[in-house]
Amino acid sequence: MNILELPVLGSHQDQTEKIYTLLADQPLRNFEGFDLGVLELDKDLQIYFYFMNQENENYHYLWDLIIPHAVGCLLVFNWLDAQSIELNLRTIEYIEGRFSTPLHICSLPADSDIPDDLIKEELEMNGKRRLYTFDPESKDSVKHILSQVLSVKS
Question: The pTM is what?
Fold first, then answer.
């Protein structure tokens, strides 16, 4: 059995966990500092999703344990939430300065009027980062993001 680990960071747990609930029927398991979801893709492959709040610095040590071994790291945020933009930029800087794990940035809302080039310019997109829009109502949106994460791994 192969197990791939995928940390999902964000400041709004209901948004980050939507990625899992659109794909799996099993409930999340709650642990101190993170929630765990297991998605079985086939009999030989499972993905362990680790949902962690980026604001709670008491649990950032978990990032050091999980992110280096992960297939990728997802950062989910609402581009229209001006208060969280600075936090997200600090999170990106922290992850990229500390880990070689590919970073996948998932921006909400998918139907935003913000042009993609503005987001890319603000985030200074480069080869190590990938940017997606995430529609929390669309299973296809999540499947696309997951397929992109897995294709970067290969």
Answer: 0.86
